[in-house]
Amino acid sequence: MRVAIAEDGALFREGLVLLLEAAGHEVAGCFSDGEQLIAAVATDPVDVAILDIRMPPGPNGGLVAAERVRALHPDIGLLLLSHYAETHYLMRVLEIGAERIGYRLKERVAGVQVLGDTLDRIAAGEIVIEPALARRLVQGSAGQDDGAIGKLTERETDVLRLMAEGRANNAIAQELFISAKAVEKNIASIFTKLGLPGDATVHHRRVLAVLAYLQAQRIDGSVR
């Protein structure tokens, strides 16, 4: 796929170029800030844009640029990168969109296989959340006795955690060593316990499930 990069760190930026080319992708543009990337994709569309969250202009320039790219070019996939797994960044990412978007740690995508898998899932329309952050949030929510999240069984909590990581049903089944039908039953139970609307699409309800436990955390800071 064709990929554009906006990253103000020259060393990491060049490293991404090498990883992408090694994975067989075409780097359509490489920029030091979001404004340059926005201008470039306006005339030369790409499949996915990779943006550093903390870069010029402003402290969260990557998020601002991602919002503008999504508004102007909704078909372009977005991968937001950060050194830290911070929940307020995740909430901003979810506000930008719940399809063709990802939030990963820089250290975790510093390999051809992980980066390639992340881009493939984003291009396929998925939302990809850093596993470490999803795991901490779900585990923290599961420990609460009040609210719908606290009513989930241990197995349902495991399924929700993997849903939060953006995993499809088959991938969840493989991870938990259960059948795909068992995954479907657990997801249906999660939807029921969280009171999610039955008339929503399955994908939309999956995103609502992720938002449910995020809101249950009542987070006003960051998790590292």
From TrEMBL:
Chain ranges passing through the membrane: none
Domain Response regulatory: 2-119
Domain HTH luxR-type: 145-208
A Pfam family it matches: GerE
Protein's UniProt keywords contain DNA-binding: yes
Origin superkingdom: Bacteria
Keywords, sorted A to Z: DNA-binding, Phosphoprotein, Transcription, Transcription regulation
SUPFAM superfamilies: C-terminal effector domain of the bipartite response regulators, CheY-like
Name recorded for this polypeptide: Response regulator transcription factor
